[in-house]
Amino acid sequence: MEHKSLLNMLWALPFLLLWSMSYLKVIGNEKLILPNLSVQPKVIKLVRIVLFFTGLISIGLIGYSLTQPREQIGYSKSTIKVNDIFFVVDVSRSMLAEDFRPNRLEAAKDKIAEFVKLRPKDRIGLIIFSEKVFTLLPLSTDLELIQRMIAEINTDFLGSGTNIGDALALGVGRAQQSLAENKVIVLLTDGVSNVGNMNPLQAAELAQKENIKVYTIGIGKKKNSRVLRNGRGYQKIPGGSVDLDTLDKIAKKTNAKSFYAGNPLALQTVLSEIQELEKTEIEQSGKPVYKEHFYKYLLWGVLLFLLTEILRRRLVKEAM
């Protein structure tokens, strides 16, 4: 049994004290008691004692009803329509190339953040990778948390290299636990997979078996670009280094699409297409449902109090 507030019982305390003092003749003017000659004085005394306690019980029941006792009997059911989307983002050092403003990674983060704002009911997850892979955020609908984690995406702490296969496999493993029908991975990279235990096409086969679509985005201009090197000048990056052929195979294998984003507008195009995905309706637990009991205690308390007062006048013959 739950109660909204046991302190609400205190509201009945002043009434309880006043009634008890009145009953016991502690306060007030002298009152005339007309004895019932047909009843023995000892019996009248016993009846008064019994009626005193029934009065206390009645007021106690009324006070208890003020706490609004209730019993939880379940939860209301509701449904929401969602997609589950994992962004698998390359954070290798080449993502700092300045062919996008201010660089590839920051431009990608901006577009992902814009995408999330338009999907307030979807569950979003974030996986980042270079040599190692890391789940930055499991699936979540907390928009503030998602935006904060997107801002936290950065380079230089997962080693050197591009581990597309393991990153994609991790995304598949995370998505497997989802109940949504539409499970989507958006893989964004500017390089070629060159490290890891699983190659990208093997990971794509896992996604295919789990009916997970993998949209791939190759990012970066085809002409040479440059990366700031330790604050001491720039290092040139060969143009066209992204493995578009493998990305295209991954997308086709999972019945999705592959895109090449040579500029922020092209990056926006692929995210806009994902916006058109049909959503899946899933059931979620709603608010708790309660069976209220306060009215029973209130009813019994009022009836018992009225009975006490009636018997007090009829049997004891107190003139009030």
Keywords:
single chain, 320 residues, alpha/beta, Rossmann fold, 2 domains, 6-stranded mixed beta sheet, two-stranded antiparallel sheet, 9 helices, rod-shaped
Structure write-up:
The protein is of the alpha/beta class and 320 residues long. It folds into two domains: 86 residues, no CATH class; 205 residues, Rossmann fold (3-Layer(aba) Sandwich), CATH 3.40.50. It is 39% helix and 23% strand. It is built from nine helices and ten strands. A six-stranded mixed beta sheet has the order 4-3-2-5-6-9, sandwiched between helices. The protein has a two-stranded antiparallel ribbon with strand order 1-10. A two-stranded antiparallel sheet has the order 7-8. The longest helix has 25 residues. The protein is rod-shaped. The chain starts with 12 loop residues before the first helix and ends in a 6-residue tail after the last helix. The model has no long low-confidence stretch (mean pLDDT 81).
Task: Please describe the topology of this protein.
Layout: H1 13-23, H2 41-65, E1 70-82, E2 84-90, H3 104-117, E3 123-129, E4 133-140, H4 143-152, H5 164-176, E5 183-189, H6 200-209, E6 212-219, E7 225-228, E8 234-237, H7 244-253, E9 258-261, H8 264-274, E10 280-292, H9 294-314
Parallel strand pairs: 2-3, 2-5, 5-6, 6-9
Antiparallel strand pairs: 1-10, 3-4, 7-8
Helix pairs in contact: 1-2, 2-9, 3-4, 3-8, 5-6, 6-7
